Amino acid sequence: MCQTCGCALPDHLRPETNERDVHTVAVLEGLKAHNDAAARHNRAHFDRAGLLVVNLMSSPGAGKTRLLEATIEALGGRYRLAVIEGDLETENDARRIRAKGVPTVQITTGSACHLDATMVHRAAHALALDALDILFIENVGNLVCPASFDLGQHASVTLLSTPEGDDKPLKYPVMFRASDLVLVTKTDLLPVLDDFNVAAVAEHMRRLASTAPVLAMSSKTGPLDAWLAWLETGLAERRRRVFHPAAPGDEGLLTRPGPNHPGPSFLGNLASPEP
Amino acid sequence: MHELSLCRSLIRQASRVAAEHGAPSIRRVCLRIGPLSGVEVELMREAFPLASHDTPAEGARLEMATSPVRVHCPRCAQEAEARVNDLTCPHCGHWQTRLIGGDELLLVSVDLASASTEPLVPPS
Q1: How far is B10 from chain A (nearest CA, A)?
Q2: Which residues hold Ni(2+) (chain B) (predicted)?
Q3: Would the pTM of this model clear 0.90, i.e. be above it?
Q4: Is B73 annotated as belonging to a binding site?
């Protein structure tokens, strides 16, 4: 038995010849400090350019790319859009988006199950951010890992397709708690699914103490109105802050909500669920 | 398995602390992990030897303490322990609680081996 700490590993702390002692240093630092710093850097880039950045997350096949295609068809004429595509392999999704005439950067992660802020930083530099209104980041299809990595986005949207079942928020609480909006997709399949209840999804989100809105739609048959309105509200919010910055100490003169007093409209109370 | 990239990040941070203290190697790394951090303790345990290979943390012991999920209820002004997928107040059933613990992912401390030429740093 180890004489130093009493564990079962023999002599694992045996000092080497050039060592005198082992001492403990308190650190108390978040394990994601490196990614969080890169995400802050991304967010500063995005804020300077005045665009809205939306991180789309879901399990594989929930309809992220299809949603983007439908969104581009609806908003492409009015807003300058771009997409960063994350996939383990293939450029298939990027090709689909490019076919709609929208600039797209593909990140192939190889075996990595999520995008991180550094990957997004490299991809963002391949885009003319100043010439954009909304940038979508289509994360790797996965309801677990992407939740743990801030990319510098302004909002996270989790798609839940009806064939997956309405209890996903309870099974993947970390992911759904990190969501600013839950989008129930493939509602055109509801007539053949007897066990999916959209109201139950909202109820499960409340169980997670989340105030994120739950919207239901079909990218195929529509209507997309609520989703498009949510995006436009988000963009207006970004623009208001960029074009009318509140000077520190100037708050007494403001009639609109300043950055220290965000309005209730867009992200609700869960804009930054991570302390 | 994002635990591998988190382990790499952890080792980068721990190695920086070791370098700041002029220590040649790391003997123990202590973490605090909440169930709502999205990190599996068992996967961290498997990833750590892979990520620490050829670093000052190679051979170090990884100790992980899990912290409970705790919420504060603004309605009954109480704190309580909750479950990962039910954060409603167990006292009054109010759903708009605030999470006050259980999503931590913290590097708490590292144990460093001092080289004989270095003065011994007394534990604080």
Answers
A1: 6
A2: 2
A3: no
A4: yes
